[in-house]
């Protein structure tokens, strides 16, 4: 009887598994993700600018995540698509992006020859466009340390993306880009609260790639909704064999919180693939705040060695030189005491699944 029971259970499990596998193939659903964890050193990490910190950190090359991606052929060249992508901190196991379940992306939409339209939480147009134009490709020590908006996301967003050969066109409108803030968007009678608008275009001709993007955000309260933060960004990318060179510029006008400012951000750098497995990237970034001494310049290096198609070892380093009351840290979103410089070094491993 026990053998018959075990056999029956095994048969049931086999049927369920085969049915699940069939459903997965029929719906075109893919499970994917990556884990990125390293050991990091940061100088002047204390609130008063003193003391070094040694820690384990997540997402040093790219954010740790897992996700589901799906598509269904509707016929006539039309496809239904969705993405549910969850970010997490691999050093602690906690959810990223403010504790959201699918904080990196959560959208559904339609795709055709004319492009695609998607609805939900999505990366902004700067994030969509500028990864190839950052010399160190969005490691935590690069462009994002100077301006985190280049890798931000928007809740409640409708987005259009059109790829036409060498030309890409993109547009985004969000009725409230941060739903974790009380009355942060979609407030009856005040559609400007938490509003974000973005538009960009990129074009490749021969070895040269070009990008131009505009991003605008409003405050997330009734009082700050009239405050507008505008970014105008552009970049060039040159590729020749194992060598790439990039240069970029962003102009920031206004801020959501007082005081309003105007700031220029310049960067340049490049990369070289010494072998198919080993690449070295380097970048220099400078923020110049108009009519203010609060400027900053950072230098970043990123080396990666591929053990396989899915597993990389990496070593990143950066130095942030703050002037005046500037408080930028070397890590994306990090801060230091006013006018204090910071050095960061991190070594780790990234695995894709």
From TrEMBL:
Main subcellular location of this protein, as a coarse class: membrane
Membrane topology qualifier: Multi-pass membrane protein
Porin domain sequence ranges: 10-324
Superkingdom of source: Bacteria
Compartment list: Cell outer membrane
Signal peptide: 1-23
Membrane as UniProt keyword: yes
UniProt keyword Transmembrane, yes or no: yes
PANTHER family assigned to the protein according to its UniProt record, in alphabetical order: MAJOR OUTER MEMBRANE PROTEIN P.IA, PROTEIN YDDL-RELATED
UniProt-recorded name of the protein: Outer membrane porin protein 32
